[in-house]
Design goal:
This protein has a four-stranded antiparallel sheet, sandwiched between helices. It is about 45% helix and about 15% strand. The protein is an alpha+beta fold. The protein binds flavin mononucleotide.
Length: about 230
Protein backbone atom coordinates (compact mmCIF):
# COMPACT_ATOMS: atom_id res chain seq x y z
CA UNK A 1 0.00 0.00 0.00
CA UNK A 2 1.31 3.41 -0.94
CA UNK A 3 2.24 5.60 2.07
CA UNK A 4 -0.29 8.36 1.66
CA UNK A 5 -3.07 5.90 0.95
CA UNK A 6 -2.13 4.06 4.14
CA UNK A 7 -2.20 7.30 6.15
CA UNK A 8 -5.51 8.45 4.73
CA UNK A 9 -7.37 5.12 5.00
CA UNK A 10 -6.18 4.13 8.50
CA UNK A 11 -8.93 4.29 11.12
CA UNK A 12 -9.15 3.64 14.83
CA UNK A 13 -10.71 0.20 15.10
CA UNK A 14 -12.76 -0.65 18.19
CA UNK A 15 -14.56 -3.84 17.09
CA UNK A 16 -12.57 -6.99 16.40
CA UNK A 17 -13.25 -10.40 14.91
CA UNK A 18 -12.67 -13.35 17.19
CA UNK A 19 -9.71 -14.68 15.23
CA UNK A 20 -6.05 -14.73 16.22
CA UNK A 21 -3.38 -12.57 14.62
CA UNK A 22 -0.41 -14.19 12.92
CA UNK A 23 2.81 -13.74 14.84
CA UNK A 24 4.76 -12.58 11.80
CA UNK A 25 2.38 -9.63 11.43
CA UNK A 26 2.95 -8.67 15.06
CA UNK A 27 6.68 -8.95 14.36
CA UNK A 28 6.38 -6.58 11.41
CA UNK A 29 4.45 -4.08 13.54
CA UNK A 30 7.08 -4.24 16.30
CA UNK A 31 9.81 -3.75 13.73
CA UNK A 32 8.02 -0.63 12.46
CA UNK A 33 8.08 0.74 16.02
CA UNK A 34 11.76 -0.07 16.38
CA UNK A 35 12.55 1.85 13.20
CA UNK A 36 10.84 5.07 14.31
CA UNK A 37 12.83 8.27 14.73
CA UNK A 38 13.81 9.29 18.28
CA UNK A 39 15.64 12.24 19.83
CA UNK A 40 19.36 11.67 19.27
CA UNK A 41 18.40 8.12 18.27
CA UNK A 42 18.11 7.17 21.95
CA UNK A 43 15.34 4.62 21.26
CA UNK A 44 14.06 4.99 24.79
CA UNK A 45 11.15 2.62 24.23
CA UNK A 46 10.06 -0.87 25.05
CA UNK A 47 7.09 -2.63 23.51
CA UNK A 48 5.21 -5.17 25.62
CA UNK A 49 3.12 -7.64 23.63
CA UNK A 50 0.10 -8.72 25.65
CA UNK A 51 -1.94 -11.73 24.59
CA UNK A 52 -3.00 -13.13 27.95
CA UNK A 53 -6.76 -12.75 28.28
CA UNK A 54 -6.81 -11.91 32.00
CA UNK A 55 -4.21 -9.21 31.50
CA UNK A 56 -6.07 -7.79 28.52
CA UNK A 57 -9.27 -7.65 30.58
CA UNK A 58 -7.51 -6.01 33.54
CA UNK A 59 -5.96 -3.42 31.24
CA UNK A 60 -9.31 -2.71 29.55
CA UNK A 61 -10.83 -2.21 33.01
CA UNK A 62 -7.98 0.15 33.89
CA UNK A 63 -8.61 2.05 30.64
CA UNK A 64 -11.70 3.83 31.95
CA UNK A 65 -13.58 0.56 31.43
CA UNK A 66 -13.20 0.50 27.67
CA UNK A 67 -14.27 -3.13 27.70
CA UNK A 68 -14.36 -3.38 23.92
CA UNK A 69 -10.55 -3.42 24.08
CA UNK A 70 -10.36 -6.95 25.41
CA UNK A 71 -11.93 -8.27 22.19
CA UNK A 72 -8.65 -7.37 20.50
CA UNK A 73 -6.48 -10.50 20.64
CA UNK A 74 -3.24 -8.55 21.04
CA UNK A 75 -2.18 -5.34 22.73
CA UNK A 76 1.16 -3.65 22.37
CA UNK A 77 1.94 -1.45 25.35
CA UNK A 78 4.49 1.21 24.47
CA UNK A 79 6.70 2.23 27.40
CA UNK A 80 9.35 4.94 27.71
CA UNK A 81 12.51 4.35 29.66
CA UNK A 82 12.64 7.71 31.48
CA UNK A 83 16.08 6.92 32.87
CA UNK A 84 17.43 7.00 29.34
CA UNK A 85 15.71 10.17 28.12
CA UNK A 86 16.46 12.04 31.34
CA UNK A 87 20.10 10.97 31.41
CA UNK A 88 20.67 12.34 27.93
CA UNK A 89 18.29 15.30 27.80
CA UNK A 90 17.33 16.15 31.39
CA UNK A 91 13.88 17.58 32.05
CA UNK A 92 13.14 18.07 28.35
CA UNK A 93 13.97 14.43 27.73
CA UNK A 94 11.74 13.27 30.55
CA UNK A 95 8.78 15.51 29.85
CA UNK A 96 8.81 15.98 26.10
CA UNK A 97 11.10 13.74 24.07
CA UNK A 98 9.94 10.59 25.83
CA UNK A 99 6.39 11.34 24.72
CA UNK A 100 7.34 12.40 21.21
CA UNK A 101 9.59 9.39 20.66
CA UNK A 102 6.85 7.00 21.75
CA UNK A 103 4.30 8.80 19.60
CA UNK A 104 6.51 8.33 16.54
CA UNK A 105 6.80 4.61 17.27
CA UNK A 106 3.06 4.31 17.94
CA UNK A 107 2.08 5.95 14.66
CA UNK A 108 4.53 3.75 12.76
CA UNK A 109 2.92 0.72 14.34
CA UNK A 110 -0.65 1.87 13.65
CA UNK A 111 0.15 2.46 9.99
CA UNK A 112 1.95 -0.85 9.66
CA UNK A 113 -0.96 -2.71 11.28
CA UNK A 114 -3.25 -1.13 8.70
CA UNK A 115 -0.88 -1.94 5.84
CA UNK A 116 -0.84 -5.65 6.77
CA UNK A 117 -4.64 -5.78 6.91
CA UNK A 118 -5.12 -5.43 10.67
CA UNK A 119 -7.15 -2.96 12.68
CA UNK A 120 -5.66 -1.08 15.60
CA UNK A 121 -6.49 1.68 18.06
CA UNK A 122 -4.28 4.05 20.08
CA UNK A 123 -5.43 4.06 23.71
CA UNK A 124 -4.25 6.89 25.89
CA UNK A 125 -6.93 6.89 28.58
CA UNK A 126 -5.74 4.46 31.23
CA UNK A 127 -4.57 4.33 34.82
CA UNK A 128 -0.78 4.15 34.50
CA UNK A 129 -0.34 2.68 37.98
CA UNK A 130 -2.70 -0.22 37.33
CA UNK A 131 -1.24 -0.96 33.90
CA UNK A 132 2.29 -0.81 35.37
CA UNK A 133 1.28 -3.24 38.11
CA UNK A 134 -0.35 -5.70 35.69
CA UNK A 135 2.71 -5.71 33.41
CA UNK A 136 5.52 -5.38 36.00
CA UNK A 137 6.64 -2.06 34.53
CA UNK A 138 9.37 -0.60 36.78
CA UNK A 139 9.22 2.90 38.34
CA UNK A 140 11.61 4.43 35.84
CA UNK A 141 9.50 3.38 32.86
CA UNK A 142 6.21 4.97 31.84
CA UNK A 143 3.46 3.24 29.86
CA UNK A 144 2.72 5.82 27.18
CA UNK A 145 0.03 4.08 25.19
CA UNK A 146 -1.74 0.82 24.57
CA UNK A 147 -2.31 -0.28 21.00
CA UNK A 148 -5.13 -2.76 20.51
CA UNK A 149 -4.63 -4.99 17.48
CA UNK A 150 -6.78 -7.53 15.66
CA UNK A 151 -8.80 -8.18 12.54
CA UNK A 152 -11.39 -5.46 12.18
CA UNK A 153 -15.08 -6.14 12.51
CA UNK A 154 -16.13 -2.65 11.48
CA UNK A 155 -15.64 -0.09 8.79
CA UNK A 156 -15.76 3.25 10.59
CA UNK A 157 -16.63 6.43 8.76
CA UNK A 158 -13.76 8.81 8.23
CA UNK A 159 -13.86 11.31 11.10
CA UNK A 160 -13.75 14.93 10.02
CA UNK A 161 -10.47 16.77 9.97
CA UNK A 162 -10.04 20.52 9.90
CA UNK A 163 -9.20 21.66 6.37
CA UNK A 164 -5.57 22.46 5.58
CA UNK A 165 -6.50 26.09 5.12
CA UNK A 166 -7.24 26.33 8.83
CA UNK A 167 -4.30 24.32 10.20
CA UNK A 168 -1.39 25.30 7.95
CA UNK A 169 0.26 28.69 8.24
CA UNK A 170 2.81 30.31 5.96
CA UNK A 171 5.93 31.96 7.36
CA UNK A 172 4.25 33.14 10.57
CA UNK A 173 1.70 31.94 13.05
CA UNK A 174 -1.83 32.69 11.99
CA UNK A 175 -1.04 33.34 8.32
CA UNK A 176 -3.31 30.85 6.64
CA UNK A 177 -2.49 29.24 3.31
CA UNK A 178 -5.44 29.73 1.03
CA UNK A 179 -4.11 27.97 -2.04
CA UNK A 180 -1.40 25.44 -1.33
CA UNK A 181 -0.53 24.78 -4.98
CA UNK A 182 -0.10 28.49 -5.71
CA UNK A 183 2.03 29.02 -2.59
CA UNK A 184 4.30 26.12 -3.42
CA UNK A 185 4.50 27.24 -7.06
CA UNK A 186 3.64 23.65 -7.76
CA UNK A 187 2.27 23.94 -11.23
CA UNK A 188 2.47 20.21 -11.75
CA UNK A 189 -0.67 19.83 -9.66
CA UNK A 190 -2.75 21.97 -11.94
CA UNK A 191 -6.19 20.80 -11.04
CA UNK A 192 -9.25 21.29 -13.16
CA UNK A 193 -10.08 24.38 -11.08
CA UNK A 194 -6.60 25.81 -11.31
CA UNK A 195 -6.44 24.98 -14.97
CA UNK A 196 -9.53 27.07 -15.67
CA UNK A 197 -8.34 29.84 -13.37
CA UNK A 198 -4.90 29.80 -14.93
CA UNK A 199 -6.28 29.84 -18.45
CA UNK A 200 -8.46 32.85 -17.62
CA UNK A 201 -5.54 34.71 -16.07
CA UNK A 202 -3.35 33.86 -19.04
CA UNK A 203 -5.92 35.10 -21.51
CA UNK A 204 -6.57 38.31 -19.58
CA UNK A 205 -3.09 39.34 -18.67
CA UNK A 206 -0.97 38.03 -21.54
CA UNK A 207 2.39 39.79 -21.50
CA UNK A 208 1.75 41.58 -18.22
CA UNK A 209 2.70 38.46 -16.32
CA UNK A 210 5.71 38.27 -14.00
CA UNK A 211 8.47 35.75 -14.70
CA UNK A 212 6.78 33.22 -12.39
CA UNK A 213 3.46 33.95 -14.01
CA UNK A 214 4.95 33.42 -17.45
CA UNK A 215 6.37 30.13 -16.33
CA UNK A 216 2.93 29.11 -15.05
CA UNK A 217 1.26 30.30 -18.21
CA UNK A 218 3.72 28.25 -20.28
CA UNK A 219 2.95 25.15 -18.27
CA UNK A 220 -0.78 25.74 -18.57
CA UNK A 221 -0.43 26.27 -22.28
CA UNK A 222 1.47 23.00 -22.57
CA UNK A 223 -1.15 21.25 -20.46
CA UNK A 224 -3.90 22.63 -22.67
CA UNK A 225 -1.97 21.47 -25.69
CA UNK A 226 -1.85 24.95 -27.23
C1 LIG B 1 -3.08 10.40 22.37
C2 LIG B 1 -4.28 9.62 21.89
C3 LIG B 1 -5.07 9.00 22.82
C4 LIG B 1 -6.18 8.25 22.40
N1 LIG B 1 -6.91 7.56 23.33
C5 LIG B 1 -7.98 6.84 22.95
C6 LIG B 1 -8.71 6.07 23.90
O1 LIG B 1 -8.38 6.02 25.08
N2 LIG B 1 -9.78 5.37 23.46
C7 LIG B 1 -10.16 5.36 22.14
O2 LIG B 1 -11.13 4.69 21.82
N3 LIG B 1 -9.47 6.06 21.20
C8 LIG B 1 -8.39 6.79 21.57
N4 LIG B 1 -7.65 7.47 20.63
C9 LIG B 1 -8.03 7.40 19.21
C10 LIG B 1 -8.73 8.69 18.74
O3 LIG B 1 -10.01 8.77 19.31
C11 LIG B 1 -8.80 8.69 17.21
O4 LIG B 1 -7.49 8.68 16.69
C12 LIG B 1 -9.53 9.93 16.66
O5 LIG B 1 -10.87 9.92 17.05
C13 LIG B 1 -9.46 10.01 15.13
O6 LIG B 1 -9.97 8.84 14.54
P1 LIG B 1 -9.08 7.96 13.54
O7 LIG B 1 -7.95 7.40 14.34
O8 LIG B 1 -9.99 6.87 13.02
O9 LIG B 1 -8.60 8.84 12.45
C14 LIG B 1 -6.52 8.19 21.03
C15 LIG B 1 -5.70 8.82 20.10
C16 LIG B 1 -4.59 9.51 20.52
C17 LIG B 1 -3.68 10.14 19.48
Amino acid sequence: METFECISTRRSIRRYLDIPVEWDKIGTILEAGRLAPSSGNIQDWNFIVVQDEDKRKAIAEASLRQHWMSKAPVYIVVCSDLKKSERVYGVRGNRLYSIQNSAAAIENMLLTAHSVGLGACWIGAFDENVVSRVLNIPDYARPQAIITIGYSDEKPKTPQRFPLTTVAFLEKYGNRIKDMAAVMHDYSVVTERNLKKGKAIFEKTGNLLTEKGKELAKKIKEKLGK
